[in-house]
Amino acid sequence: MHLDHVQAAQAVEKLGRLLEDEVVNAEVVVIAPFTSLDAIRHVLERDGYPIAYGAQDLSPHDSGAFTGDIAGPFLTALGCSAVLIGHSERRALHGETDEQVNAKVLAAFRNGLTPIVCVGEPLAVRQAGEHLSFAVAQLEAALIGLSPEQLASVIVAYEPVWAIGTGAVAGPEDAQEMCGALRAAIGRLAGEAAAARLLYGGSVKSSNAGLILEQPDVDGLLVGGASLDQEEFAQIIRMA
User: Fold this and answer.
1) Class in CATH terms, 5-239
2) Which of 83, 49, 37 is nearest to 234 (CA)?
3) For the segment 143-165, what is each residue's pLDDT rounded down to a tens digit?
4) Domain chopping of the chain, boundaries
């Protein structure tokens, strides 16, 4: 929670201006709070910037008495194309389980939204050398019940939870190791892993984005705090 709806719209407008005269090869999706989605939609419809947008969560239910939830049909009606699911903060601070993540992934597909599914291991798991099996198990649980076509279109984001606030740094080799394992897991489920898109999301900035993107199994980036600085964010996008 950093920008209100006015600030978010201004940020997207500035990002669009920074990129409008350039050839951008990357697919850019801004993941915003629910309260900012309509303001962002107005900016993008008015100015025609090639930027998509999505939400930071959704309800597993499409309708009903679920006060405080935001249903998938609401996001679709606002023009969202994607939704972030299972972010480490949702798991840690709201107790979100693998089963809940799976229910939300299914809800996203029911409503024509591309799920960006976050997985990642805490420090104790990393230190025990069980990081690959932990994240793969998270992913497999999140993808239960999906068709081969849905498995091919899901986006998976690896968050190195162990590196958040610990002073440790996740390097390009960590990103490659994990994204390679996650791609292989999707291949086992779907029979085809090449179409899956794998993102890395751990303290991404312009100074390390290039090396991370060079890794063969890293298809893109989940940019956090650096996206609040539009000049920095634009520089990262140019590298993709």
Assistant:
1) alpha beta
2) 49
3) 999 999 999 999 999 999 988 76
4) 5-239
